[in-house]
Each structure stands twice: as C-alpha cells, then as structure tokens.
Prior knowledge:
Layout: E1 2-3, H1 11-16, E2 24-26, H2 30-39, E3 46-47, H3 48-59, E4 63-64, H4 66-85, E5 97-98, H5 111-121, E6 126-127, E7 134-135, H6 138-141
Parallel strand pairs: 2-4, 3-5
Antiparallel strand pairs: 1-2, 6-7
Amino acid sequence: MLILEEGFPCYKALHKMGAEAGDDVVLVNPSEVVQLMRLVPQGKVTTLTEISQKIAKEHGVKACCTLTSGIFVMTAANAAADASKDGRDLGIPYWRTLKIDGYLNDKYPGGVEGHRHLLELEGHGFTGKGKGARIEGLEASLFTF
C-alpha cells in the first residue's frame, strides 16, 4: 500500500474517483486485474474505473492505482491476442474492458478499430469515431462487480 500524494502519477484520476492526498491506495497485482476481466459476460462491458474500484474495495483502501491497472489490462489484451494466433484461448475477453471514461482502447491489438470490431460482434453500437468512440448506452451495458 501507498499513501496518495499530489505528485503520484495517477493522482488526477484517483482524485476524480474521490481519493484525497493522504488516503491509502493499492498497487494492483496483475492476476487481480485478469480475474476481473474474465468475469465480464458477453454483451456487457466494464471500465478501468470499475476494475480499480473493485480492487480498492477488496483491499479496504480508498483507491487502486489506475496507471498500473491500465498497464496490466493492456498487457493481458496483448497476451490474449498473441495466444489466439497460436490457437490458444486464455479466456480473457479483453475487448469488454474500456478505458476510464468508457472510451475504446487504442493500445489494444488492432487499435481502436480492432477494439470496435470485437465489440460490434457482440452487438454494441457506438457514438463518436476513432479515439473518441464510446459504447452507445454505456450505462445499460456496464457490468459492475
């Protein structure tokens, strides 16, 4: 655990979620992120915010570092995509995890267009284009833990 300070790399994101300087925060374990990503069912999506809030709650702290969570989400996505090229399925539906504010992730395999395509296959519509694309009716599609 760490004590949140104003110079912390994800301070603004954590502050936006209600954490204040001096609050306890946790740096996440990659396996915790992957475990939560696997829980999101077809037709639903979650965000990095939802994942981070769930992990913080499990650790009994005010917040979970969204920077490290985001790195692990991206790493899991790339590992799952690489494994699928060899015919292996890691069981990580990474495309169902969106960025903090519900935007598509340009760092996923195939970039924003690849991310959009996988979500379209599950019936999702979109508002906006490119990096500004978001799930249409995000609240109705949002899976919370």
